[in-house]
């Protein structure tokens, strides 16, 4: 893959997803695209770039993202969600949690952990003593290897770059060639394996659900069923964050109010009519 080809593809990936493909990801990109070249019977990456420019380009960009994003994640990815979580969603919930109410956040496709750890940092920034209250962030994924990585909480120096130096200092400690999440951060987190299409083993409801860049891989019936299950799993006023290229469709859409780009609040269920 030439420099120009890499830059072109990286620019498309960034434009479509906000994901930055650093030079160190070039071999990963090549490995992922090799499969795609075989499927399309294309001879090389130049021919693939031509396809991205052709009439098939828009469709191919979706395949490109799928090839790239299987487990791809990043700290504070789609940063506006974390701003909104910290500024608009959590403050009232934290006030209630301090008064004894249960507070539950869920990263429903947490990959290697960057998303739930970003949620945890956002929470602890505003609620440093969260661990002393009934407050938890649940991180689940279908991929056991990813769950194990999240649980371990070790990240490369490159991965923690978007965290920023003050938060790295506060929430991580250097370990080998990277960083380990500190116990304070992990104390409010729980990790587990869960396929979103299976039954969910939860006894209570959630206040915040992040399910980003995953439902896009589901067919529309499965996706709409998932939105309905999230609606049922959220408390009234609870917040749902979905991925940049996803949208809330189907019957559940009426149960939510949009509060920003790909973010929603669960409506109150109307009280039953008095007889
Ligand atoms: C692209 S990553 C998204 C990670 C994170 N949510 C983000 O936006 O940065 C997609 C994740 O969804 C997980 N996944 C795919 N199908 C799933 C399913 N049926 N149930 C739970 N997780 C699933 C994959 O293992 C992968 O870790």
From TrEMBL:
EC number: 2.1.1.80
Keyword vocabulary terms for this entry: Methyltransferase, S-adenosyl-L-methionine, Transferase
Ranges of residues in domain CheR-type methyltransferase: 1-269
SUPFAM superfamilies (UniProt xref): Chemotaxis receptor methyltransferase CheR, N-terminal domain, S-adenosyl-L-methionine-dependent methyltransferases
Binding-site list for S-adenosyl-L-methionine: 71, 73, 77, 115, 141, 195-196, 212-213
Gene3D superfamilies xrefs: Chemotaxis receptor methyltransferase CheR, N-terminal domain, Vaccinia Virus protein VP39
First-tier enzyme category under EC: transferase
InterPro entries with a match to the protein in the record: Bact_Chemotaxis_MeTrfase, Chemotaxis_MeTrfase_CheR, CheR_C, CheR_MeTrfase, CheR_N, CheR_N_sf, SAM-dependent_MTases_sf
Gene Ontology annotations of biological process type: methylation
Reactions this protein catalyses: L-glutamyl-[protein] + S-adenosyl-L-methionine = [protein]-L-glutamate 5-O-methyl ester + S-adenosyl-L-homocysteine
GO molecular function: protein-glutamate O-methyltransferase activity
Keyword field contains S-adenosyl-L-methionine: yes
Pfam families: CheR (PF01739), CheR_N (PF03705)
Domain of life, source organism: Bacteria
Main function: Methylation of the membrane-bound methyl-accepting chemotaxis proteins (MCP) to form gamma-glutamyl methyl ester residues in MCP.
Protein name: Chemotaxis protein methyltransferase
Source organism per UniProt: Paracoccus hibiscisoli
């Amino acid at each position: 893959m030439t420099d120009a080809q890499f830059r072109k593809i990286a620019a498309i990936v960034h434009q479509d997803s906000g994901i930055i493909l650093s030079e160190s990801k070039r071999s990963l990109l090549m490995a992922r695209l090799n499969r795609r070249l075989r499927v399309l019977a294309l001879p090389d990456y130049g021919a693939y770039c031509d396809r991205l420019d052709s009439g098939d380009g828009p469709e191919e960009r979706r395949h490109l993202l799928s090839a790239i994003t299987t487990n791809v994640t990043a700290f504070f990815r789609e940063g506006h969600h974390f701003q909104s979580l910290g500024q608009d969603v959590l403050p009232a919930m934290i006030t209630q949690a301090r008064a004894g109410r249960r507070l539950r956040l869920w990263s429903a496709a947490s990959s290697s952990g960057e998303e739930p750890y970003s949620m945890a940092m956002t929470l602890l920034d505003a609620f440093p003593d969260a661990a002393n209250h009934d407050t938890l962030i649940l991180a689940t994924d279908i991929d056991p290897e990813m769950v194990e990585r999240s649980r371990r909480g070790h990240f490369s120096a490159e991965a923690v770059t978007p965290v920023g130096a003050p938060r790295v200092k506060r929430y991580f400690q250097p370990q080998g060639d990277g960083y380990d999440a500190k116990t304070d951060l992990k104390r409010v987190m729980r990790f587990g394996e869960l396929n979103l299409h299976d039954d969910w083993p939860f006894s209570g409801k959630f206040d915040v659900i992040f399910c980003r860049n995953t439902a896009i891989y589901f067919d529309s019936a499965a996706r709409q069923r998932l939105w309905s299950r999230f609606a049922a799993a959220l408390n009234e006023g609870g917040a749902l964050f979905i991925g940049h290229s996803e949208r809330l469709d189907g019957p559940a859409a009426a149960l939510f109010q949009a509060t920003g780009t790909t973010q929603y609040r669960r409506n109150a269920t109307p009280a039953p009519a008095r007889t």
